[in-house]
Design a protein that fits this description.
This protein is mainly α and 328 residues long. The chain contains 13 helices and two strands, in the order H-H-H-H-E-E-H-H-H-H-H-H-H-H-H. The radius of gyration is 25 Å and the shape is globular.
Length: 328
């Protein structure tokens, strides 16, 4: 196992370096350029230099006068020392902006993740044990709806119903208008109130895939020979399902869950932007449309690290929960 983990870590580092180069190259090709916008603004000032002169000066200042590979190597040299520069859009160090926003995204993601497990896995088991019944069809329809609904469409429906029609929640933002006049407990409830709809979107749109996955694996286990043997021995249906079948169904589910854990820190770019929740996803969206290479580069590399870590965790957890698996 230690040799396998070391091998996977080295492979992940190589993949990360290549992915970082691709990300850097794509960001250099963005149609939106912060440098161009700044140069255009500076060149319009009275007595200022021309646009081309400002472009040359700013590109040299930000290291964009080099080619893609030399520029990436320069960024990588600073990145290994955890120096990611200043965000052009947010006018503060990249790591400082990240620390201010990642906590809120983690809270939203963690709540949605727990709700997803509590809802999707039991429903998937119920659908499998009642195959081809009305319950199974109903759960399957809900799962397919969750998989198929676009984020922006479902979020708009929630806004129309709960904000416009019922007036229960605000349309946007993390705090209300009278937030400063509230008590600490009132401020907590105000923030919680603003997070209800975003968490609903994250939860509903994520339960479908896990629910179908649980159902499929549960059906496969229920048709196994050892389950028929357990029933032939006279064991109760509840013990057969929840003691024998469900435990083996958890093996592939744990790998999926392990791969989902790093995603708690990545934020929900579309959901946070639609509800104007100032998390890491919201910050990264505005950085990308603003041509903010330092922050966008950090965020996308951060996502790559999370993805590779999730895959590694999934492989390790699979070996841990299944004693039949032995890695040579």
């Amino acid at each position: 196992m230690p040799k396998y983990i070391l091998k996977r870590v080295l492979q992940s580092i190589l993949i990360l370096l290549l992915v970082g180069l691709i990300i850097y190259g794509l960001l250099r090709c963005l149609p939106t350029s912060y440098i161009e916008n700044m140069a255009r603004q500076l060149s319009t000032q009275p007595g200022s230099k021309s646009f081309d002169e400002w472009m040359a000066q700013l590109e040299a200042s930000y290291g964009l006068d080099k080619g893609v590979i030399p520029g990436y190597l320069g960024w990588l040299k600073n990145a290994v020392r955890f120096e990611f520069g200043d965000s052009w859009v947010w006018t503060m160090p990249v790591l400082e902006k990240f620390q201010k926003t990642v906590g809120l995204s983690f809270i939203m993601g963690a709540i949605a993740f727990v709700l997803e497990l509590l809802i999707a896995i039991p429903l998937g088991v119920i659908a499998a044990t009642k195959q081809y019944s009305k319950t199974d069809y109903t759960i399957s329809i809900v799962a397919l709806a969750g998989i198929s609904l676009p984020t922006f469409f479902f979020a708009s429906l929630l806004k129309l119903l709960f904000s416009v029609k019922l007036g229960w929640f605000d349309l946007y933002g993390l705090v209300g208008r009278n937030y400063e006049q509230l008590t600490p407990w009132g401020q907590f409830l105000d923030k919680a109130n603003h997070l209800v709809m975003p968490v609903m979107v994250l939860t509903v749109l994520s339960i479908g895939g896990l629910m179908r996955y649980t159902r499929t694996n549960m059906l496969e286990v229920l048709n196994a020979d050892y389950i028929r043997t357990a029933r032939a021995k006279g064991l109760s249906e509840g013990k057969v399902i929840y003691h024998h079948a469900f435990r083996n169904t958890l093996i592939p589910i744990v790998t999926i869950v392990g791969g989902s854990l790093p995603g708690l820190f990545s934020g929900a770019l579309i959901t946070e932007t639609l509800f104007a929740i100032p998390g890491i996803g919201y910050a990264s969206y505005h950085s990308m449309i603003g041509g903010d290479i330092p922050f966008s580069m950090f965020y996308l590399t951060f996502l790559s690290v999370l993805t590779l870590t999730g895959n590694l965790l999934s492989d390790i957890l699979y070996a841990v929960v299944d004693p039949r698996v032995r890695i040579a």
